[in-house]
Design goal:
single chain; 125 residues; mainly alpha; two-stranded antiparallel ribbon; two-stranded antiparallel sheet; 4 helices; 8% strand
C-alpha cells in the first residue's frame, strides 16, 4: 500500500523511476493507472518476482517514500527554499551545524534518508 499522493514519485517522469526500480531489483512492479484510493487514501502496488527481488523492490519503494516524506518535513520546518541559495529564511547559511535540537548536527533530507537506510538495514555508524 502506497499513499495516493506518492504514486507519482514511484512511477517517475514518463515511467523512468519505476523502470529503474524494475531493472535494479529484477522485480515486476505494477501500479494501476485508474484505481481509486481506499478509505486510508492508499493505492495497492503489486510486486512480482522471486523472493529477494520482491523484498528488494519493497525496500526501495519504502526508502523512496521515506526520503520524500523527509524532504517535505525538511521544507516545512524551514529548510532551504528554492531561490534562496545557501542562506535559508532565517538568515543562517546552515554551515554552523545548528538545527535547533542542540546536538550540533544539521540534518538535511539526504542525511535523513541515509540515516533511515542505515536503520532499515540494521547497520550502525
Amino acid at each position: 500500500m502506497v499513499p495516493s499522493n506518492m504514486v507519482g514519485r514511484i512511477i517517475g517522469k514518463k515511467g523512468c523511476a519505476i523502470q529503474d526500480l524494475e531493472l535494479l531489483t529484477r522485480a515486476e512492479i505494477d501500479v494501476p493507472k485508474d484505481v481509486k484510493a481506499n478509505e486510508k487514501n492508499e493505492v495497492v502496488v503489486r510486486i512480482k518476482g522471486h523472493f529477494f527481488a520482491t523484498q528488494s523492490a519493497q525496500r526501495q519503494i519504502r526508502f523512496m517514500l521515506y526520503t520524500a516524506k523527509a524532504m517535505m518535513q525538511y521544507n516545512q520546518r524551514g529548510g532551504m527554499q528554492g531561490g534562496e541559495g545557501r542562506e535559508g529564511r532565517d538568515g543562517r547559511d546552515g554551515r554552523d551545524g545548528r538545527d535547533g535540537r542542540g546536538d550540533g548536527r544539521d540534518r538535511g533530507p539526504r542525511e535523513m534518508g541515509r540515516e533511515m537506510g542505515r536503520q532499515m538495514n540494521g547497520s550502525r555508524d
